[in-house]
Amino acid sequence: MTYDLLIVGSGSAGVAAALEASALGAKAAVVEAGVLGGTCVNVGCVPSKYLLRAADAFHRAGHSAFPGLRTEALGVDWKALLAGKEGLIAALRKEKYQEVLEAAGVPVLRGRARFLDGERMEVEGREVLAGRYLLATGARPFLPPIPGLQESAPWTYLEALSAPALPESLLVVGGGPIGLELAQAFARLGSRVTVLEALPEVLPQEDRELARLLRGYLEEGLRVHTGVRVEAVAREGAFRVRTDRGVFEAERLLVATGRRPDLEGLGLERAGVERDERGFLRLDPSLRTTNPRVYAAGDAAGLPQFVYVAAQSGRVAARNALGVKAPLDLAALPRVTFTDPALAAVGLTEEEARRRYGAGVRAATLPLSQVPKALTARDTRGAFKIVVDEEGTVLGLHVLAHEAGDVIQEGILAVKYGLGYRDLIDTFHPYLTLAEGIRLVAQALDADPKKLSCCA
Length: 456
Known about the structure:
By secondary structure, the chain is α/β, with parallel strands linked by helices. It contains 15 helices and 21 strands.
């Protein structure tokens, strides 16, 4: 069988590439050795956010913020909760992957793919030829080389999201987005949770001011230790984690220390496809590998590990592979940590902006207590922060709030199109919405927000 484009991997990058190829009139196929849909729908975004929202609902049921309202959180049926998760995953896998590919006329070839040489692949022993190949095989959890860690069989996010039971206690190694999200979810559902982070702060890629605020909110329900180096792990019934700050014990251990590309067994060497020092594929700006017939997209390509980056890179790689030039622009890339409150950001942090642009950078922070929507919702945990250059162009927007991810889009457009903070002030923002905080934080660059009228 011969195709114009053969795509290895059926996650977001692979499916987006297949749909783009089909739209361009090319003959494409997807190869999948495992479950259709890749990380996001099966073991990543969808199940983790389902668990987070369930934990949030349970927490709020037992913590009414309004006077005169008495609510109660009656208990957690973990098996029923997981069954609901699996039902959602199955439905999305069928409707958004299987049926979408079928409607586009893109077949799915089942089995493992590997290169025979620089021009040919085989799938489960059957030779398959294509004009171009696209690798979208994703990434898998990474366990650091800590003595005793592999032997103790800890959880990664894969096992945590399908755990047979809620643990009484849980140690989480890693204070990045995945670690913090799952730590809070398990804590709210009833586990005693401790987070251990090697770096001085959690979420080191985020604005320091807001990351510290978020840590304080998280510590209302779990313990966070930063600057902790894990030295060894043992399992004798419970997990014992030895660190430079003492020994920590828990029923379960979750390791959330990053992901590595899933590229083993593809025969990359036979195809002349090189990897970089981190193990990711070596690419040019068109997402082409060191073999001009082979392109890559998504997590395996070493790109920022967000599902929307995977999908966009899949579209871009497919277009370039088929001779339609397309760039991958990551200049206004948003990121969201889905804790409660959530932390969403786009563009530069204040620290990054000052290093790049110097003393002319200005920043303003607006506590959520100055946003009317937060006051009426009786949830003022969080803040808005804006960073601008000397001319007032928006360099970064950062939001710490319950639904921060739902209001960051305006900041994405501001950074992408080089808007000034006065443009944000002069744009209508509906009153009593969280998005109004964007106008208010822009105003805070010039005025004390406490001296502004709430609706004038």
